[in-house]
Amino acid sequence: MSTSTNHIGRKISRIRELRDMKQEALAQALGTNQQAISIMENSETIEEAKLIAVAEALGVTPEAIKNFSEESAINYFNNIHDNNFTNSNGAIAQNHSCTFNPLDKLMEVIEENKKLYERLLQSEKEKIAYLEKLIK
Asked: Are 42 and 9 in contact, with CB atoms under 8 Å apart?
């Protein structure tokens, strides 16, 4: 489906799909029903007030809907991919920036578990001693 034309309904439909939103969700956000959204997405033009409400529900500007094209969306996502996920050699970049050493955190958890186990073991020993005392 090409959105290079000025068919506002198709553009709304495409943006909604890219935002992983169903017609029912958009209808609920606009206080209408799914059938009204379907009719709107099949309309070539939409009144400005409704366009503003739809844009707000989709989290975009009315201009973004008016100027939307598949090509610009593809370029946008390709640029994000190129800038964030690959380094200058084309290899996938690791964007992890831990502020702590994960192994240190793991050792802390192990030590904490060991202390809890020792406390539990001591508690069980005290319980056994108390029960033995009661039996005698």
From this structure: yes
Q: Which residue has the higher pLDDT, 91 or 74?
A: 74
**Tokens matching residue 18:** 């890219």
Tell whether 92 is covered by a domain.
no
| pTM, rounded to two decimals | 0.53
Q: Identify whether the C-beta of residue 14 lies closer than 8 Å to the C-beta of residue 42.
A: no
Residues 80 and 19 in one domain: yes
Mean pLDDT of 51-58: 93
Residue 2 lies in a domain: no
Residues spanned by the domain of 40: 8-85
Residue 98 has pLDDT above 80, yes or no: no
The packing angle between helices 23-30 and 34-41, to 10°, is: 100
* CA 35 distance to own-chain centroid: 27
Residues 61 and 37 in one domain: yes
Rounded distance between C-alpha atoms, residue 113 and residue 103, angstroms: 15
**pLDDT band at 72; cut points 50, 70, 90:** confident
Whether 115 shows a pLDDT value over 70: the answer reads yes
- Same domain for 73 and 112, yes or no, is no
